[in-house]
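Annual report, structural modelling task.

Input specification for the flavin-adenine dinucleotide complex:
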Amino acid sequence: MSIKDLFKEKTVFSFEVFPPKKDSPIEIIYNTLDELNDLSPDFISVTFSAGGSSNNSHALDIASRLKERGVTPMIHLPCINYTKAEIEETLKQIKERGIENILALRGDITPEIPLKEDFRYASDLIGFIREHGDFDIAGACYPEVHPDADSIVDDIRNLKKKVDAGASHLITQLFFDNDAFYQFREKAELAGIDVPIEAGIMPVVNKRQIERMVTTCGASLPRKFVRIMQRYEHNPEALRDAGIAYAISQIIDLAASGVDGIHLYTMNNAYVARKISEAISGIIGA
Ligand code: FAD
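The model returned the following structure:
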């Protein structure tokens, strides 16, 4: 099923999962996948490592398994570390498995992973994918500006290029401050970006995640969020419950403001996904 059509019918609710680490067997994620499938999300996206920290054939296998179990998969596809020939081969495999939906990405530029010359931006990849098959293509977007962009104006202009290249819907980077999303959505609309934008929500439910948020994520942390994290960082259960509650309150506010969809960064935690799904089932799309 093509994901872009779902937005015409409802507020989309989707999950994101990542494959096990390179040396781990794929089977360790099967229980989680089955539990997530039972929650009947509109689709599940599977990350694809630009740096090779996970096994990318696992990503394809996970997407195939989701499809076999009746859930629409979306495969992520970063491009800057791959040649055109490598991407073409991956597209062939995606097509052979009957996967129709791709999240086209540039990938992060890091000194450890050599860049290839063939693709510079996600929009280059989108054009290439369009030439090589009939896929539904999504793109990423950044309510608080992509870190490489000189300004919000440049970033939004570049986002428009991505949509013009053929991205039929967008998924945001995680954010904790809904106002940042609302301001971004307005600017995107003013720039003529008229495709659905799914809001990326990450429940922060353990101390490791808090540390990562503070050091690397770049998302602004509202005072309410910081208070919760500081208060409960040494109480794992309370932190988990408070993190879930915070994500639910974000989602309710977004749903009330007519968001096109919610993309839950599940971090492969089916318990958290279930708690959130149950809490919002009567609200999202109501
Ligand atoms: P682009 O859209 O190419 O943008 C990158 C930068 O270039 C921006 O600053 C933009 O303003 C600028 N730019 C874009 N187009 C142009 C242009 N035509 N001219 C000039 N400047 C331009 N990474 C992975 O490796 N694997 C994953 O599975 C993965 N999943 C992700 C899922 C989501 C929902 C998100 C938000 C990110 C994900 N990422 C993933 C991370 C992503 O690869 C990085 O954020 C990366 O740095 C940018 O990717 P992009 O596709 O947004 O890049």
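The pocket of flavin-adenine dinucleotide is lined by residues 47-48, 50, 76, 78, 103, 105-108, 121-123, 140, 146, 148-149, 154-155, 158, 161-162, 171, 173, 200 (CB under 6 Å).
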